[in-house]
Amino acid sequence: MTNVSTAQRRSLDFSRLFKAQLAATAAIMALAGAMSGAEAVWSALMGGGVSLAPGIYFVWRGTRRSPQPQRNVLNLYQAAMGKFGLTVALFALVFALVPPSNPAFFFVAYVVAQLMYWLTPWLVRERSTPNT
């Protein structure tokens, strides 16, 4: 029997979530390309990016470890606020600077990438932490 530390048990593998979001975005991009052409593909890519970038920020900011439990909670709150702010800012940037030519594929890609937060635990059967 292997002795696994608490830190190892608590470390999560977020790469599977991000891979699922990228795969979902790629599937929507392929569908957009088949149905509407290159401009729809670009719209779907932007929608997936608006979903993916704040999630990466949240993981980067929220998984910092501190010996003080209060600091860990503060990191999670700051990560959540930053994720929300980054999402709003990215939506504003996309619609102000590069308006999607096909908003339907933009929002479909965004929503499907967001659904991966719910679906990834069911899609991936193996545990993200080692067995104790």
From TrEMBL:
Membrane topology: Multi-pass membrane protein
Keyword Cell membrane attached: yes
UniProt name for this protein: F0F1 ATP synthase assembly protein I
Domain of life assignment: Bacteria
Pfam families associated with the record: ATP-synt_I
Organism name: Vreelandella lutescens
Subcellular location: Cell membrane
Keyword Membrane on entry: yes
Principal subcellular localisation of the protein: membrane
